[in-house]
Give the backbone structure.
Amino acid sequence: MSTPAATVPDLLDYDEVLERFDPVLGLEVHVELNTLTKMFCGCPTEFGAPPNSQVCPICLGMPGSLPVVNGKAVESAIRIGLALGCDIAEWCRFARKNYFYPDMPKNFQISQYDEPIAISGEVELEVEGQTFKIGIERAHMEEDTGKSTHVGVTGRIHGAEYSIVDYNRAGIPLIEIVTKPIEGTGALAPQVARAYVAHLRDLMRALDVSDVRMEQGSLRCDANVSLRPLGETAYGLRTETKNVNSLRSVERAVRYEMCRQGALLAAGGKVMQETRHWHEDTGITTPGRSKEQAEDYRYFPEPDLVPVAPSRKWVEELGTTLPEPPAQHRKRLFEAWGFTEMEFRDVIGAGALLLVEATVAAGATPAAARKWWLGELARRAKETEVELDALSITPAQVAEIQALVDAGKINDKLAREVFDGVLAGEGSPEEVVAARGLAVVSDDSALGAAVDRAIEANPDVAEKIRGGKVAAAGALIGAVMKEMRGQADAGRVRELILERLGAE
Ligand code: ADP
Ligand code: MG
Ligand code: ZN
């Protein structure tokens, strides 16, 4: 199964890949629903509980136990299907997908196979000003598996000393959303893949059906990638890179697979149809298992569950609970914020649309919200390699920091230190300002003394100002700022300098 790093093939240069090949993508996204209880039993679903504390005979697959469908999960599945523009099945069934794995206590997973609840949808994305239509093949309901931890140096099953299993996750409701093959993305394939997953994440959040935390695994993406020679219509053989757990990784994994497959094909070799593992740390994929065929799973209709037949009336009612469609939402914000197209695109590209929106809702101007999220905060997210929305600061706190700037309590430079404090968990912006002593000094006695010292230390500059060269005041303001570690009220300092030198 896993192969040592020595066999990792060479990569073809990305531009060369595109000169010779056309990428085709297929994205399978698993969304863990935020229902209070599991898919087929009443166990709680809370994340992070002690191992095996949220289990019962049903989700442990004890003989004689019987599953019952979670109505709320079906409701969420229908709303997701509708939001993806899918048709909702009038009648569908669950199916048993049989395979053996220790984290799956029943030795089968209850899923849906040829009768999914939602089929044939479409989502529209914008990437670098280009519009892409992504066909949705289906969205189906299933249950999650438990979680194995392989203890040993590799952290993988091979080379593990022993493995432990936590069944808390077994039976958590999942919706799997599968795209039709995505063609025509060319050089933008990695970015389209990323934008699609970001789009689903935002959509699930707007629907309030999942907490979509990629780092906690409540949104997971498997990325299928194949290449075909330019001009060819038949698809090439694909690989499926499993569980790519951040937006950035989606983009990197697709790009890596394109370059890896490109090298193989260019050398006259063949791509193996297989699953692969993504390695966040090294940025490469390694082979997993060779791909099973559907027959290997011996699917058959789940005999312990009745079919799901949502009434048209219910589906229609659920249709009225959908959030504003993302394209319309973007258009509305674009018009409201008054950004240039370029500025707006950058906000979307940074995955900051909802963050900026929430920051504006909390009272900041669009320009200020954009400035912090795309500047200071984007830089920090990049440094710590997390997504923007995983930073431990809320839009309301960003708005609060901007309000402190607007009120003259802090300046932009001090605001950066407030960001440091909030991100380090030191409390609210107000608390950080107080605890770190960051407030701007505008008190005349403190400022006046510093101004006097600056004048004394720079007699030539002072002389110029006295002589009417007011522009020279900048140098003295700088000196005062330096002495007061940036915490002086610059406007007031300027007034004091001019006053003292009689140069108003
Ligand atoms: P599997 O059971 O192998 O996971 P699925 O049908 O669930 O198969 O998902 C396969 C995904 O890959 C779908 O999104 C599909 O559109 C896509 N796909 C199928 N063939 C290719 C191909 N040759 N290249 C890239 N993607 C493909
Ligand atoms: Mg699949
Ligand atoms: Zn249970």
About this structure: Residues 24-28, 137, 178-181, 224, 226, 235-236, 238, 240 surround adenosine-5'-diphosphate (ligand 1) (CB under 6 Å). DSSP finds 16 helices and 14 strands in the chain.
